[in-house]
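Study this chain:
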Amino acid sequence: MRKYIYIASFISVSITIISCGEDSKKNIEDNAAPIAVKVNAIQNTDNSPYLSVSGKIQSVNSADLSTRMMGFVNKVHVKVGDKVKNGQLLVSINNTDLQAKLAQVNASITEATAAHNNAKKDYDRFQNLFAENSASQKEVDDITARYEMAKARLEAAKQMKNEINAQFAYANITAPFSGVITAKNIEEGNMANPGMPLLSMEAPGNFEVVAMVPETEISKIKNGSTVEVTAKSIQKTIPGKVTEVSTSARNTGGQYLVKIALDKTETPILSGMFASVQFPVEKGAQTATNTTLYVPKEALITQGQLTGVYALGNNNTAILRWLRIGKTYGDQVEVLSGLTKEESYIISAEGKLYNGAKVSVQ
């Protein structure tokens, strides 16, 4: 009888310890500071009868600067955020080999010039002798050929110098227009390779939106149409005008590229912001009932073959949603299932997220 009493007592104590442990763990989780996150609400829930598609804001005038020559970078004269003027020196690449080639070409030009001058003197002399019947036609023809050859060698040497001078332009990377440096992909001492982007720059204040329109609606979009563009992150609406309408979806999976030039505005918009474009045309029944959802790549979570996103749940908790995704369009991925139109999803977090984690929306 005592044996069973001891066993019952042991089980009771064990349950009490486990229960206390679970309560302690729960208290620690409840007392943990919420993780600061940024959330993007899906903007496809409007009941507007007009066609609305997602797009991305970009600068009208932008450039990725590279070089055609290989060499070590001597100096990068700018940093990200710097304002530069047209023609300003941005990157200097070691050009010792070009300087050596230029010295060789200059020596060739000196030699060719001397040969040309000497051949010209002989040519002029024999022309005078031929006029006085003191030289034969054969001698004049030979000296003329020598003169033409010397002239050609001099011209070839000069053109070679022009080629070397053109290569010097790729050793000193300058700004093609006035703007702002947006990216720097090279540091002093790195090796620059032909075609490798060194710097990126944009001309501020002049923006456009690149949007993808489904094939069922593209025939309604006309050049010159006035549209409304809403920057999602700041919820500001800016008027714009359609400037380009693609006539091919060969490489975009049934989506047609449309560009919209934005009017000049004081609204603080930046390149890379996502936008919603509303066209002044009625959307078709298929578009109205089957609105496609898109999620930026930066918000996706991958585990093996699974792809998901952290949605914002009740009481500001992170809920992991596994998605079935479709095609990729630039920085956005088509969501086929797993995320509803009414849910908000987390783009970035200042800590490690997990299912059920407490979050604080910034």
User: Anything to note?
Assistant: The chain is about 30% helix and 35% strand.
